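Inverse folding, one chain.
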């Protein structure tokens, strides 16, 4: 026996549309898409044509340069003597040519004056280095060559070329050397000569073994007095005065002191030429310093 069918399953649906395929995109969706496309196109048009259609009407501030091209001719906008055209409210006025020329001349004078002062200062420093080296007993050719590169040639520089190869003892060294030779010079001054009698020659031979020199008195014309005066001057650093005090020394004594005289002469010449070069360099530095604008 079969069961009776359910009445709800036998009755057919009353709306046939329920059996049709449902639409994915209806009219509302297409309308929304069209509006989106229109909005995108409108935005692109405003971005592209907006700066041309809607120009700014603001007036530029006083003195500001306008970026927009001007309708005025270029000849009216360029000031006479101006290098570049400037679009401003007022025409730019170029400085007079005389002022520009005067300014250029002053700049040139300043640069020249500064260079002269620098060169003179460098020369003064080189002279100072030379003087410091020349005061020692060693040769000073390297310092002299450095000075010749920055200083104009002069007789004093040429005279130092030969003296710089050997140098000269210091003033203190000359005083010590003279003290070591003074006793022998005093003994040589008492040499009676080949024509003296036998007693005088014997006395001189004994005096040569033991040198006796009177050093207490600096007055008089005896060799001992002259040697004492020269030693006192050397102790004070006065080589020139010591050499002058020994002018009247007898020839035998001068022969003993010959090496010392040569060294003292070189020291005097070196100091004299260095002093002259230093004076010229300082005078040049002072002159260019006063003349600098």
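Residues assigned per position:
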């Amino acid at each position: 026996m079969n069961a009776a069918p359910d009445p709800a399953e036998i009755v057919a649906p009353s709306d046939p549309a329920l059996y049709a395929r449902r639409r994915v995109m209806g009219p509302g969706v297409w309308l929304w898409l069209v509006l989106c496309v229109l909005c995108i196109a409108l935005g692109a048009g405003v971005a592209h044509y907006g700066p041309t259609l809607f120009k700014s009407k603001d007036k530029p501030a006083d003195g500001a340069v306008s970026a927009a091209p001007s309708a005025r001719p270029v000849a009216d906008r360029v000031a006479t003597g101006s290098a570049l055209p400037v679009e401003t409210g007022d025409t730019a006025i170029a400085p007079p040519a005389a002022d520009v020329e005067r300014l250029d001349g002053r700049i040139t004078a300043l640069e020249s004056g500064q260079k002269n002062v620098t060169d003179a200062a460098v020369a003064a420093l080189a002279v100072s280095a030379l003087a410091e080296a020349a005061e020692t007993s060693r040769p000073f050719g390297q310092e002299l060559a450095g000075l010749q590169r920055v200083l104009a040639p002069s007789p004093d520089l040429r005279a130092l070329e030969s003296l710089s190869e050997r140098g000269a003892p210091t003033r203190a060294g000359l005083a010590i050397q003279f003290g070591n030779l003074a006793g022998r010079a005093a003994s040589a001054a008492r040499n009676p000569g080949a024509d003296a009698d036998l007693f005088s020659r014997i006395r001189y031979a004994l005096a040569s073994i033991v040198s006796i020199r009177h050093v207490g008195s600096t007055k008089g014309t005896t060799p001992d007095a002259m040697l004492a005066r020269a030693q006192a001057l050397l102790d004070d650093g006065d080589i020139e005065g010591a050499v002058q005090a020994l002018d009247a020394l007898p020839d035998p004594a001068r022969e003993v002191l010959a090496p010392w005289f040569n060294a003292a002469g070189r020291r005097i010449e070196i100091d004299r030429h260095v002093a002259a070069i230093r004076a010229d360099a300082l005078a040049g530095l002072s002159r260019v310093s006063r003349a600098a604008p």
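The chain has twelve helices and no strands. The radius of gyration is 55 Å.
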